[in-house]
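Hello,

Our lab assistant flagged a job as stuck in the queue for most of the afternoon. It eventually completed. Since we weren't sure the result was trustworthy after the delay, we are filing this so someone can double-check. Below is the sequence as submitted and the structure that was eventually returned. Let us know if re-running is recommended.
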Amino acid sequence: MPLLMLKDLPRYECLLEASREYPDLNPSATDVFLNLLRAGDEAFRVVESHLAQHDITQGRFAVLMALWANPDGAEALSPALIAEQTGVTRATVTGLVDTLERDGLVARAPDPEDRRMLTVRLTPRGVKLLQRIMPTHFRQMAWLMEPLTEGERKTLVRLLTKVVERAAEADASATPVAAR
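-- returned structure --
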């Protein structure tokens, strides 16, 4: 689902005019923010379309990728760790794992150290699906970024990292951004 519900972005001149009525509107910041959302929406759309060809959603793909690229090297992860790695709630992970398990892409098993807990692991069928998806997925990422030079890519990552760090500050702060 797109984050930006505008088909066409407002012209910079319109933002300047609106800033006269709303002094807190920074035309430059708003312009960049709207373009950031638009770019994210378009990238999401391209990936979503590719995954749909394999009958898989972004959420299910994220769970599979968390299991495939587990940095700890464990063969299985707890649903809580999957939720943490994918940035969704445990309830959402439960629903995603339910459908992945139904399709034979993951399997649940009791945690060997704590039988009250469950772990989730990729099945051979899940590994095969990822092996089918990944080459085209990586080619699409490269294709999307192709218009940027290597230097521009590094600059973009540096700039986006600043935005992510600022967003984390808002999450960590007890004072809502709107009240500052």
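-- support follow-up --
The delay was a queue issue, not a problem with the job. The result is valid. The longest helix spans residues 27-52. The chain is about 65% helix and 5% strand.
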